[in-house]
Design goal:
With about 625 residues, the protein is α/β, with parallel strands linked by helices. Among the domains are: about 70 residues, Oligo-1,6-glucosidase, domain 2; about 80 residues, Immunoglobulin-like (Sandwich). It has 23 helices and 25 strands. The strands form eight sheets. It has an eight-stranded parallel beta barrel, surrounded by four helices. The protein has a four-stranded antiparallel β-sheet with strand order 18-19-20-25, covered by helices on one side. A three-stranded antiparallel β-sheet has the order 7-9-8, with helices on one face. Helix 1 packs antiparallel against helix 2. It starts with 8 loop residues before the first helix and ends with a strand. Bound molecules: alpha-D-glucopyranose (GLC). Alpha-D-glucopyranose binds next to loops.
Amino acid sequence: MAKAASITDEDLFAMRLARSAGDLWPMLEALYGGHPGYDGFRDSLLATLRKGWAARPIDLKRLDLLRDLEPDWFQRPEMAGYVFYIDRFAGTLKGVLDKLDYLEDLGITYVHLMPCLKPRPGDSDGGYSVMDYRAINPEYGTMADFEEVTAALRARGISVCIDLVLNHTAKEHAWAQAAARGDATYQDYYLMFDDPAMPRQYERSLVEVFPDNAPGNFTEYPHFGKWVWTTFNEHQWDLNWANPAVFVEIVEIMLYLANRGVDVLRLDAVAFMWKRLGTRCQSEPEVHMLLQALRACCRIACPAVIHLEEAIVAPAEMLPYVGRGKHDGKEGNLAYHNSLMVQFWGALATRDARMMSHVLRTHFPDRLTNATYATYIRCHDDIGWAITDEDAAALHVSGPAHRAYLSNFYEGTFPGTFARGALFQANEATGDKRISGSFAALAGLEKAQSDGDSDGADLAVQRILLGHALIAGFGGIPLIYMGDELAMLNDHGYLNVPEHAHDSRWIHRPRMDWHLAKFRHSDDGAAGQVFRGVKEILHRRRLTPALHAAHPVRIVDTGLSGLFAFVRQAPTGAMLGLFNMTEHWQNLPVTVARAQGVTLMQDALSDRPVFAHHGQIALPPYARVWLT
Ligand code: GLC
């Protein structure tokens, strides 16, 4: 057979299909094999993949090749993320184009544009209630604007992440509207029941996500005679992933968005995608089969694109989202490191890092395959105290009491607390109380400033920088949440906005303070100190090869309860991360550092040598050191 003179698009597709076939078809066979339309489904999925690939712009096809050649691109130390709402950061998509210098100044190489697809009108759960996945929120601009922004970011080496809400659509979505009109095909896209008998049976083992304002998991719609599964809000209808037609629809949408220049799809609320009677209907094994199959589809038709899976759950439940067991290396490329975040806040409150060390040592492997974490301290959501009773017991404390203590501490009611936050969805039945609040407010800046306490304000700045140094050094892509780099405080204005007043998460979704940003290079005031500090952390991160996410991270027991420590073991040498979680000085025996393979005694974070006195390294309050 004569060889073709060049490699064609068709060859590339065939090679990638062959590469991922083994990851894809067995999952689909297991999920949908028994479905009457299975053969037709396979054909239409293949046609969808081909169509997506054929429509992929040439510059994105180049990027596909580039990332095939450099599959660790998202694990590298130069990755640094920034998360913002388009309207709150820049007004519109066009406005984002004017802010690129700011992002570059900070050292950002990845942006998460918070929900930007067309939401339902009115309360849309911050944009997570989507009525059209192929349109941009008209308040932000058009799809053409969006493509202009992704191209401009790409030209600067900045990757773009957007949300793909695939557990539910808005009830205003065309599929939902057809279902409400009685179209049986579309009713099968959702989970609908003729009477409350089944919903009641499911409810017995379900939990409530928004017990305050959206109790229960089902909604009755008398005008079309159905009970609809609505895990989150009434207007968010859960999709029926047991229907293969839903799978094909979502793949088509994924490829459509990928072809607009998206690099990272943040798959929202994935834990809820599969329902099984008698369970919490969270993180069922089928969820992982679906996610592996979706991942394979992107690897075939838009391999430059990776998946961030949002599952804010306890460690053992979270890890499978980055591929464990038979899904190793084949599922999410990124998942939020919720435990690192929760434990950071826990250790700050208690001035004790032992639970943090225990949890991170016991539950997490030292490295992941084709994956890493999205590390963060704050995001747009509340903080839930995802600490199990078992982990609390290992430290001889009661789980419920510890969680209640953390809620009180960060709400700002516990005596002596430095924090000022707001409660979110206090659940009387379970005693669960989640917390909202900006990084700076939770770290003590709001209280210190209103008390006129300048020492307190200094400590708050140190806590904020400590958190950023932690997420930049631990391994993964550190995500800076808009405004935190300027130590922005809580925004109480949400209480005056009718659609937001019931949802305290808006307290930490402020409008960007561009006036404050003008002083970002100044040494005077918290905003400048934090901005300069964060910028320096990201700069030093880029220069520290040991921080590549593929290098193992191991938690180190230093014998000091207030010190959190881990070692990154890189072929270029070890790096010991030291984080003083307290406002007290601590002395670390230099032998502990040497035992971890640290030889130079150079702090890669400050770029200065570290000296030991009488065999001890002295660590000031809230010190952070990357010792190489
Ligand atoms: C995710 C989002 C959250 C939203 C929920 C429902 O958890 O982060 O903001 O309320 O999904 O879509």
